[in-house]
Amino acid sequence: MVLHTATSVVTIERYIIEQERLYPEATGELSGILYDVALAAKMIANKVRSAGLADILGATDDENVQGEIQQKLDVIANDIIIKAMDHGGRLCAMASEEEPDIIPIPERFRCGKYVLLFDPLDGSSNIDVNVPVGTIFSVMRKITRGTRGEMEDMLQPGRRQVAAGYILYGSSTMLVYTTGQGSHGFTLDPSIGEFLLSHPNIRIKDPARYLSVNDAYEQVWDENVKALMRRYRGLDGEQSPMNVRYVGSLVADFHRNLLGGGVFAYPANKKTPKGKLRLLYEANPLAFVCEQAGGAASNGTTRILDIQPTELHERTPLFIGNKNAVAQAEAMLRGELAGVGA
Ligand code: FDP
Question: What spacing in Å lies between the alpha carbon of 24 and ligand 1's midpoint?
Answer without folding.
Answer: 40
